């Protein structure tokens, strides 16, 4: 048995009990004690090797790790108290995935449109600007805006997968 193993066997159980008295969770206590040993073994060359010093070092390291753990748990509790936990069910995750796919497909098709058509289509349907607002921003006629929007919609309808058409109906509202 090497000196590290002897040290581990000597103090592990006592340190686990000490940590458990602070955190009240046996697995967490064991994890914190193991982390203290790992840190000790990494810094072993820099640490004085007297038995009393090693013992104090390990107990102090475990104590601070436990306190740090408890502080972190309190922060997590505060966070969950502030943020409403909203676990998504399977349907809402599926809807989110479909929505993302539709949006990606629409942006892919828009990127293929001629520049002026693309610009007017985005302003009209994605940014929600009225025809009048678009004419004022681009200094073009209302008829040009209407024509480009119709042209863009035709391109979109021709290239969009039929499964995504209900989303387009929603977009037009």
TrEMBL record:
Keyword terms: Sigma factor, Transcription, Transcription regulation
Keyword Transmembrane helix recorded: no
Gene3D superfamilies xref list: 1.10.1740.10, Winged helix-like DNA-binding domain superfamily/Winged helix DNA-binding domain
Source organism superkingdom: Bacteria
Occurrences of domain RNA polymerase sigma factor 70 region 4 type (ranges): 104-155
Domain annotation RNA polymerase sigma-70 region: ranges: 7-74
InterPro entries registered for this protein in UniProt: RNA_pol_sigma-70-like (IPR039425), RNA_pol_sigma-70_dom (IPR014284), RNA_pol_sigma70_bacteroid (IPR014327), RNA_pol_sigma70_r2 (IPR007627), RNA_pol_sigma70_r4_t2 (IPR013249), RNA_pol_sigma_r2 (IPR013325), RNA_pol_sigma_r3/r4-like (IPR013324), WH-like_DNA-bd_sf (IPR036388)
Family, as annotated: Belongs to the sigma-70 factor family. ECF subfamily.
NCBIfam families: Sig70_bacteroi1, sigma70-ECF
Protein name in the entry: RNA polymerase sigma-70 factor (Family 1)
